[in-house]
Amino acid sequence: ARSQGHYSPFKKETAINLAVVFLHALPKKEKHTEKRKKKVTRPDADNLLKMVKDAATKARIWHDDSQVTDLTVSDRYCSSLEDPKTIIKISTWREEEHKENFWEHIP
Q: Which of 70, 19, 77 is nearest to 49 (CA)?
């Protein structure tokens, strides 16, 4: 059970948009490319996403992951020009209504 002092930047009734891009290192056998490739190996996007949501709950980003009402997930191999990383964007519905497409700005 959570303590009374639980803090989250979002109120319990706030609907949250979660966007996650998992970028993995290219396997050594793969030909290097300047474009990202879809990854269809384990761990799968569902399990990776669960890890992100559980970590965000534990870090008190939100009260409960049930607040995530909109979700975008991509699981890719990096291009040869970038390093592996995970990109996470958390926003509220109101913020998202007035912003450009987030994915257009990711290098």
A: 19
| CA distances, 21 to each of 24, 43, 87 (Å) | 10, 14, 5
pTM of the model: 0.79
SS3 content of the chain, % helix, strand, coil (to 5): 25, 25, 50
State phi, psi for 52 to the nearest 5 degrees: -65, -45
| CA distances, 31 to each of 53, 68, 71 (Å) | 32, 37, 31
13-45 confidence digits (pLDDT tens): 999 999 999 999 999 888 888 999 999 999 999
Give the number of other Cβ atoms within 10 Å of residue 13's Cβ.
7
Question: Tens of pLDDT along 61-103?
Answer: 999 999 999 999 999 999 999 999 999 999 997 655 545 555 5
